[in-house]
Amino acid sequence: MIRVRGLRKEYPGGIRALDSVDLEIAAGEFVALIGPSAAGKSTFLRCLNGLIAASAGEVVVDGETVTGASGDRLRRIRARIGFVFQQFNLQRRLSVLENVLVGRLAHTVHWRSLLPWFPAADLARARAALGRVGLSGLEDRRVDLLSGGQQQRVAIARALVQEPRIILADEPMSSLDPALARTVMELLRRFNQEDSITVITSLHVLELAQDYGRRIIGLRNGRVIHDGPAGSLTPDVAYRIFTSGVELGERPGGVGSAR
To answer: Which range (43-47, 228-232, 249-253) has the least confidence?
Structure first.
């Protein structure tokens, strides 16, 4: 589903966010992406759907090359990739239903996307998506009147209504309390299992990564330093991912947990 070769991203000032990343992710996987702040997690996710242009390397998603894509071709690629943002990225003055319908714009001809008009089939898809995330009955409520947990579920419904092959989620629970965070993760796992949607989510809570990710990828300093099943995320491995200066293969003495 996703093939990444030699992916590099440099920002102005010589800051290298990604450094020669090579990865393959199969259809239907649930991947938890972990690592310290500034490890390159957000940049990696945004390179996958072309929100950020890579400096070098190649990203291929569902048979389409993302790197170098623009215009209608990039729009077509993004239509298959739902994105759930850390801070929801909703239109706060619009209703819940209108925000979810934004997810259909990539499937709508240009002139229609300029008007507050969607076909009945899209309205039905949006209402069904809201039902799946537990928000039926709130279609007409302004989104800025919702709780943080409800807003994130609107964002997930917006991604789901795209009928995506992939959902990318960038620390989607960082603004939520632990109970709501698990509710969001349960939704992502459900759509992964029921709809065979490939899910890649960056997480800052190791317990969530272990409980929900079937595959754990650890980034540090823009490089992949760990890639394995959930059971491979031992305290020793977590220490190497989150502690600078400790390279993969070294075994620091006396480490019982990661911070």
So the answer is: 249-253
Highest mean pLDDT (candidates 116-120, 207-211, 247-251, 252-256): 207-211
- Count how many domains the chain has: 2
Say if 65 falls within a structural domain. yes
Looking at 163, 195, 228, the residue that finishes a domain is: 163
CB atoms within 10 A of CB 82: 26
Q: What secondary structure letter does DSSP report for 199?
A: E
- Give the largest Cα separation in the chain, rounded: 63
Model confidence pTM above 0.85 = yes
Q: Is the separation of the CB atoms in 68 and 153 below 8 Å?
A: no
Confirm whether 235 is domain-assigned.
yes
Instruction: Kindly state whether residues 70 and 106 are assigned to the same domain.
Output: no
Alpha-carbon gap, residue 214 to 230, rounded angstroms: 5
Sign of the torsion angle spanned by Cα atoms 73, 25, 51, 113: positive
Cα distances from 172 to residues 48, 74, 248, in angstroms, run 17, 24, 28
Q: Kind of pairing, strands 223-229 and 215-220? A: antiparallel
Query: Residue 15 gets which letter from DSSP?
Result: E
Select from 104, 133, 163 the last residue of a domain: 163
* CA–CA distance, 162 with 122 (Å, rounded to integer): 10
